[in-house]
# Entry
Amino acid sequence: MPNLHRGEIEAEIGGARRRLVLTLGALAELEAAFGADDLVALAERFGRGRLSARDLVRIIGAGLRGAGEAVTDEEVARMEVAGGAAGYVRIAAALVAATFGAEEEGANPP
# Structure
C-alpha cells in the first residue's frame, strides 16, 4: 500500500502494479533533465500543465527508480498503461501532486 504522506503512489504500468515515488534523488534527476535551477522551478514547470510525452516518460521513470526499480527511460517508454496517453498523464499528475503536497482525489490511478 502506498504511503501518500511520503509522496508514494501506486499505478498499473506495463501489466504490473508498481509503486512510484519522487525521492530527493529522483527530483535531482528531474531538475537536471529539465534544466530547472531548483524545486520551485521544477514545480512551476509541472504546474503549467504542458508536458510532452518525453516529459511523462522522465517523470514516471524517475518515480519508478525512486521506488527502487532498475528501469531506464527507454524501458518506461515501451511500457503500456490503460487509457493510453491519458493514462500516462494521470499517473504523472498523481505522482507530482503526491510529491508537492497537493491533495488530489484518486491519487492512486488504475
About this structure: The first helix runs from residue 24 to 34. The chain is about 50% helix and 10% strand.
